[in-house]
Amino acid sequence: MHLIPTQEEVVAVLRETGALRDGHFEYPTGLHSNEYLKVPLAMRYSRHQKMMSVGLSRLLRAHPEIRAIAKDLSMVAPTTGGLPLAFGLCEALRARQVYWAEREHDRDPLRFRQFLRPEPGEPVVLVDDLLRTGQRLAELKALLESYDAKVVGLAVAVYQPNPTTLSFGDLPLYYLVKLDASYYVDGEHCEWCRRGMPLEKV
Predict the structure, then answer these.
(1) Is the pTM of this model over 0.85?
(2) Other C-beta atoms lying within 10 Å of the C-beta of residue 131
């Protein structure tokens, strides 16, 4: 294993743990894809969580501005799926703290719990297991900025862009793996549907 795991090494772990599978899948957004990806299936093993967290921390440390403020950084996750990575990054970077935003109900906006919110000017890194559409991370970024926190980067284990992925402009994005899955907006345009391949909803 390299100091920073290679794309091939991380993909091997994802496949070994069942986090990455080939087939014909429909995601909750309605997108059809030839890949299933649930990074938490790999993160449930502490050795894999540590490998990804430490590898990602080394990518962040390579950035001079991040390295200079590491002890003052907070890791903030928008979902429970990103928390193992956020805690691992915080430990590896010897950063300040970890906190998260959550929803009371599925359609509610993200919010911070009472007494768990950023301070004005606090430097933060947005952390999640996966960046696919970017909607949750964009919502978290807007929430943090409403408290005048300073978002200095995004860190994810896997970057899997699709046609609807949001742009974060010049904000640095750190990731261990980039996966280029094929996507179709619905079953009508999906080549696997036309071929009659069995569909699995995820």
Answers:
(1) yes
(2) 23
